[in-house]
Amino acid sequence: MATAFAGRPAPADHAFRWIAIGSAAIVLVVLGLIAAVMTARSIPALRAMGFEFFVSRRWSPANNVYGALPFMWGTLYTSLIAIAIAGPVSVGVALFITEVAPRWMTRPLVHVIDLLAVVPSVVFGLWGILVLAPTLGRCVLTAGLILGMMVTPIITSLAREVIETTPAAEKEAAFALGATRWEMIWGAVWPHSKSGLVGAVMLGLGRAMGETIAVALTIGSAIGQISINPLKSGNSMPAAIANQWGEAFDLQKSALIALAVLLFAITIAVNLAATAIVLRSRKRSSR
Amino acid sequence: MMRVAHGHPEIACATERTDLRARAGLREAKDAMATVMFGAAVVVVAVPLALVVWALIERGAHVAFESFPAFFTQEIPVVSRRPGPGMGPAILGTLLVTGGGTLIAVPLGILGAVYLNEYGGVSRFARAVRFTAMVMTGVPSIVMGLFVYIGWTVHFGFSAFGGALALACLMVPVVIGSTEQMLRLVPEALREAAYALGATKSRVIVTVVLPAALPGIVSGSLLAVARAAGETAPLLFAVGAATSFNIDFLGGANTALPVQIFDNATSVFVGAQDRAWGAAFTLVLVTFLVTLGARFFALRSALQR
Amino acid sequence: MGAEARKSTGKPTALAGREIASLSAVSHVTVASPGSVVFDLEGVEVHYGAFCAVRGVTLKILEKEITAFIGPSGCGKTTVLRCLNRLNDLISGARVAGGITYRGSDLYGAGVAVTEVRRRIGMVFQKPNPFPTNIFDNIAYGPRINGTRSHGALEAIVEKSLRSAALWDEVKDRLRESALGISGGQQQRMCIARALAVEPEVVLMDEPCSALDPIATARIEDLMRELKRSYTIVIVTHNMQQAARVSDRTAFFTTDRADESRTGYLVECGKTDTIFSNPADERTESYISGRFG
């Protein structure tokens, strides 16, 4: 019908391309909406409190005074407990899987660890509140322990990836010098994996800070409490929002939204830093 | 150049053998300790997991299967003090909300990934989308919940659709990420072969690239579904806490398993707690099965990492 | 299998100097002297799982000589080399059949400490594989794990090893800089220094020059002639001329191209001069004269 090589691209082809572009753009639109809408709604509270919002410990809806510090403290404290436990344990598990376990044990072990990732956070919260809390109480420690359980699979899987990039040639060099397995890990694996492992732990930190439901159920929902004692009940940013929203009005709602925005900003920062570190260590190992 | 050592045949071998035996020394002790510590780490992880699974089975299974199928078909007691089943509306709600979310998110996610890998490449727009998707996979679920409330529920009220939308927002970035990974693994040679036969780009994608990546895409999507099924916070704000069956997708409050677990977990009544365990058992079972499906498809994927 | 040309060297009577002290009561012990047997391989076969990589290896490696393994690709030279320091243990499914003794002791015997084996039998690899730290820490790694802690002692060992590897003058001002910043030839000499730092008795070299340019190669060959005075050296090389230049004895491996199983085997082993001028087996002759391989 047409002369050789003449022809226009089919309209269906064009349409497909635009549909694909549109789908991709939706992601940008949604994030933009989230940022815009949430920030807008948080302005009333921020305007009312000013900088005090970030440094004050008082949180009193009755008096319309809102200070986020106790919640920030709770988020930080529980997350630190979580990675203080989950960090070393996950790295230990990752090292076990990559260096110690015999071939046949590797896959099943990885599956078992991944099972932890499958359990929804609300189930962890349920277990925490009905099984763990009766002994330890609803406190920062309980929340921290539950968080630790939850972030372990994430850190482990990333740590495994990082450790596996160690060049086999250098492991052989260490063995050829008469090293034991532990000495080989220290001499050949560790220098390579150092920064990547830091990134992996930070990613776990970001996840722990953003976790809402499990913490909400186990932390105790104290108001205005800043304490070093992990056995005291506390509160975290996401938990506070989840627990207070139902009965909040106007300015309190705005304050809670401000908390959400703050949380979002912090977790983005941590996750970005962590991803950058992990990517940089990946690039360095592929020399 | 080479001097021959004349042997001393009369020397017995035993006394002259060099010693290669193992020394019981500090180095070996350190190595053994390290191995033990790594093994201990595995135990530290396995024990809580076992405890959780055990609690689920011990406290949840019998609730779910008692006078089967009551738990799955009966409505949630409005008076939470009352013991006994069921969680039917929550199960239905989870199906509606997760199914709806999947129907929205998976096609969108796949198409978005198609754009990123097949059209976008390293353009600024594509990089912005990738970055955004990555950021959004880390959104705290409470933030998403609030957003859904302000953006949707306030205007349209509680509904299963609102919940589906909320879950879709959470799922799309994940589906985009895993799908793009799969598409990247499809060898360029496959595309070139199709192009060489005169196919248009969209044709190549739909008939060659997507089928090649399909098992991997399905696997990634199933994982996103499993995660979404367990999400609580967004649903709290979008779906409400109905106690009776509500098949109406677009109207009226509904409920879902995670929401019910959350609400009942804080209850002091054993009856409510039991239902929470039963719901948790059901939820974990479903999530587990979906994850198994994901792994099954991952194995069938021919694409090598 | 072709005839093996080897000089009779008597029974293994050599002992490493260290062990002398514990055997002071025994009067007729001889210190390791050139020509005594270091490795004695009898009918060695190596399997990776079901695949037989090499078979029929019977040869002796003699003290303070350079022995070269030559032959076409894939005939088992590196496999046999890696048995000598038990590095094949790292490959799951690898099995060694037959006897390998090191100075009279069964290398694979019960109760043998693999770490001790590898300390005494060092290895240099095809591609330089420095650790991603500085030069000092690379070389000090071996002594450190063997218990040397004092900084003074470590510095002395590092300098001695670098001098033995003919690298000291080039890097003495750069010891704290990354080992990845020096040239390929220098990295390989650093790896040699690293291997020497633990005071081995044997140095195994797996195609040490194949990743290097001719000048760097020549320097390493000079180094090998120097090292021969203190260490026994076994080198795998694809480069026949290198083997002819550098080694005292040569072992020629090959596979049967008609053989589907691709199992390698030893053809003959003997003095380098003899192998290259008047080999006993015609396959050796073909390889040496370039007719195949």
CATH superfamily of chain A: MetI-like
Question: What gross morphology of chain A would you assign?
Answer: globular
Our count of helices of chain C gives 11
Distance, first to last CA of chain A: 55 Å
Word description of this protein:
The complex is a heterotrimer of chains A (287), B (305) and C (293). Chain A has helices at 11-49, 52-55, 69-100, 103-118, 121-136, 140-164, 168-176, 181-210, 213-218, 237-244, 250-285; strands at 59-60, 65-66. Chain A is 77% helix and 1% strand. In chain A, strands 1-2 form a two-stranded antiparallel ribbon. In chain A, strand 1 and strand 2 form a beta hairpin. Chain B is mainly alpha-helical and 305 residues long. Chain B has a domain at 88-300: MetI-like (MetI-like fold, Orthogonal Bundle), CATH 1.10.3720.10. In chain B, helix 4 (124-137) packs across helix 6 (160-185). Chain C is of the alpha/beta class. Chain C contains eleven helices and twelve strands. Classes of the chains: A mainly alpha (287), B mainly alpha (305), C alpha/beta (293). Chains in contact: A-B, A-C, B-C. At the A-B interface, helix 1, helix 3, helix 4, helix 5 and helix 6 of A face helix 1, helix 3, helix 4, helix 5 and helix 6 of B.
Q: What topology emerges from the helices and strands here?
A:
The complex is a heterotrimer of chains A (287), B (305) and C (293).
Chain A: H1 11-49, H2 52-55, E1 59-60, E2 65-66, H3 69-100, H4 103-118, H5 121-136, H6 140-164, H7 168-176, H8 181-210, H9 213-218, H10 237-244, H11 250-285
Antiparallel strand pairs in A: 1-2
Helix pairs in contact in A: 1-11, 3-6, 3-8, 4-6, 5-6, 6-8, 7-8, 8-11, 10-11
Chain B: H1 26-65, H2 70-73, H3 88-120, H4 124-137, H5 141-156, H6 160-185, H7 188-196, H8 201-229, H9 233-238, H10 257-265, H11 270-300
Helix pairs in contact in B: 1-11, 3-6, 3-8, 3-10, 4-6, 5-6, 6-8, 7-8, 8-11, 10-11
Chain C: E1 14-15, H1 17-20, E2 30-31, E3 37-48, E4 51-62, E5 66-70, H2 77-84, E6 94-102, E7 105-106, H3 114-120, E8 121-124, H4 135-145, H5 151-164, H6 168-171, H7 184-196, E9 202-206, H8 214-227, E10 232-236, H9 240-246, E11 249-255, E12 264-271, H10 272-277, H11 282-288
Parallel strand pairs in C: 1-2, 4-12, 5-10, 5-11, 8-9, 9-10
Antiparallel strand pairs in C: 3-4, 3-6, 6-7, 11-12
Give a brief description.
The complex is a heterotrimer of chains A (287), B (305) and C (293). Chain B is mostly helical.
